[in-house]
Amino acid sequence: MKTVCHPSDSRGYANHGWLEARHSFSFANWFNPERVQFGALRVLNDDIIAPGMGFGTHPHDNMEIITIPLIGDLEHKDSMGHAEVIREGEIQVMSAGTGVTHSEYNHNKDQPINLLQLWIFPKRRQVTPRYKQMTIADLIETNKISQILSPNEDDQGVWIHQDAWFHLLKTDRETKEIYHLRQSGNGVYVFVIEGSAVIGSQHLNKRDALGIWDITQFELSVAGNSSVLMVEVPMTF
Questions:
Q1: How far is CA 79 from the centre of its chain?
Q2: Where would you tag: which of 38, 71, 165, 177 has the fewest CB atoms within 10 A of its CB?
Q3: Alpha-carbon distance 31 to 98, whole Å?
């Protein structure tokens, strides 16, 4: 078992006035040569966007982009013709593939939005761009590890073009669970959204993360009223 710990306060930070951003991996003007990616996971940004503000139209290609609003709602428009609002408690995926442009704005005029956005390198390049969003609550069983993303279109949750799985563990009491990796050669980036967790001898608090690989399973103990995201990705691809 190999691990790497990324405490919350070790993340990159930028305050643009309308945007307060924290980067788990090198992004924009923040570069850390030891924090470029975790396997196929390239970006995990924890963004707070001011009311009515956002990102103007900009391009992406050959990346799987997953957005999870934690507080508030995100307005999305793209060159595929989608004009959607991604609500708090939903998950959205956009496969950029051959190329797509989109904009993202805080849909709410009276409160900030806090969202997680993750970028994952795809298994196949130059795929046809696609879009999907889904309500997470429909996928979650409290105090159980619940799948919200996979590589399989017919499986539970949204899907992407990579051998990756996302799971959420939401608790209302202290909970112990065993995570079984879905594919040999994968690793798991465990990110504590709220509350706290313990994996082995490692204690994790809000927004701390632990990368784990060279293992087939691990046990985690999670405090009550916590939310933990587990991002399983290939370590080589």
A1: 23
A2: 71
A3: 27
Taking phi over 0 as left and psi of -120 to 50 as alpha, with beta for the rest, 188 belongs to beta
Count of CA atoms in the C-beta half-sphere (13 A) of 159: 9
Residue pLDDT tens, the chain, 237 long: 999 999 999 999 999 999 999 999 999 999 999 999 999 999 999 999 999 999 999 999 999 999 999 999 999 999 999 999 999 999 999 999 999 999 999 999 999 999 999 999 999 999 999 999 999 988 999 999 999 999 999 999 999 999 999 999 999 999 999 999 999 999 999 999 999 999 999 999 999 999 999 999 999 999 999 999 999 999 998
The CA distance from 195 to 65, in Å, is 25
**Looking at this protein, which amino acid is placed at residue 131?**
Y
CA-only gyration radius of the chain, Å: 17
The structure tokens listed for 221 are: 């103990």
Alpha-carbon distances of 70 from 19, 115, 122, 193, 236, rounded to whole Å: 15, 5, 25, 9, 30
The CATH code of the domain at 11-136 is 2.60.120.10
What are the residue boundaries of the structural domains of the chain, listed by start?
A: 11-136, 138-234
Same fold, 11-136 and 138-234: yes
Contacts of residues 135-143 at CB distance under 8 Å and 24 or more positions apart, as own/partner, are: 135/87, 135/89, 135/90, 136/68, 136/89, 136/90, 136/91, 136/168, 137/89, 139/168, 140/168, 140/170, 142/170, 142/171, 142/172, 143/169, 143/170, 143/171, 143/172, 143/173, 143/175
